[in-house]
Amino acid sequence: MRWIESGRWRGLAFLALCVSTTGMRAEALPPGARSGPSQVELSAGQTEPAGAKVEPAGKVEPIISMRAGKAAEVANRKKSYDVSVKEAAWVDTGIDVAAGEELNFAAKGEFTLGGMRAVGPEGAERGLKDLLRIFPLNSAKTGELIGRVSSVEASYPFAIGAEADVTMPTTGRLFLRVNASDDLEATGEFKVKVKPGKAASGAVAGGAAEDVSKVVSPGMFAGIPRRVADQAGNAGDMVNFSLLGTKAQVEAAFKAAGWVEVDKTVADAVVHGILSTLSHEAYTEMPMSTLYLFGRAQDLSFARGDPLKIAAERHHLRLWQTEMTIGGLPVWVGSATHDIGFETDQRNGNVTHRIDPKVDGERDFLLQSFDAAGVFSSAAYVTPASPVREARTATGGEFESDGRIAVMRLK
Predict the structure, then answer these.
(1) Which CATH superfamily is domain 71-195 in?
(2) Domain ranges of the chain
(3) What does the DSSP 8-state code read for residue 385?
(4) What pLDDT was estimated at residue 25?
(5) I need a labelling partner for 381 at 20 to 30 A (CA). Which of 27, 368, 371, 398 fits?
(6) Looking at the whole model, is its pTM more than 0.85?
């Protein structure tokens, strides 16, 4: 699928294409549905469909953050570093940074993009053609100097520009690059001076909150269905993550990790898409279909994806608040999957999204994105009783899992 319209309104054509593939429609809640957080007992009796393979189990495994063990590296640094960015690729600065510390960046130089457009580290305002390109950081200017902590794909970049003081989101290795898409030939050099600041107190250790692996257990999922369902009650995607935190903490964590809350209706999407196109901004908040847990639709929906791919390919998830609390914090559960294309909906023969059948990859992408943003204090894998190992989505697609649920205590 390609964006083929020209001129100011091509964004609208793309938006229409996106909306047509979401399957979104106004749906009434199933009988017995409730509008607020529901007791987990409401769905405790839900059974797995024929063909789902489950087995008894139950254990908790602490997750070692990629931020762990960086204290020594952060402590032994020079007072300043000179880094050269010479191509449109991530450059390892060799600098280990600490969560919460403020780094000073000062950059100079010039890149030529596409053989004709010269930009400095402050970047240039995007034109309409730039809406057809995939940038490492969609919110930054074309050619702007950007950075990120860690080399994992899930790490969300941040804008720097020609000069800035930037607070590090997490502990790890600092990388820099020019914000240019792969189709733009980038030649030139940015010379960047980086001056590390004083690490925030307790940032490397991750705070004093009790390790979540010591306060959660397989039993906490005893009354939570292993699968979400469509409007007709067909079991689908598996519950594969859980968050401990307030709604404000949940929303702040997703924002910091580069996820966007999607539009709730097609009408919202149309208005949002028009405004984004007219302001030369990328539209990434395309709605997603409604699924059910505890007899009600998801409370929150988030996505991460490149603007030109979101119709067919994006990271996305749905989230429900339970009535449980642990350590005074509300417990949320959710289902995360990665759309990778289209397939035939076996319920009705229509076209629907195809998810990556190895669903653990999306669970771990979410975990890595939160770790790279430094938004959880501790995390653990919990294998509940009767974990789902193999099953089918509500539309008929197969998927497989190790059955574990990633649990994160938010900061």
Answers:
(1) Galactose-binding lectin (2.60.120.430)
(2) 10-66+206-410, 71-195
(3) S
(4) 35
(5) 398
(6) no
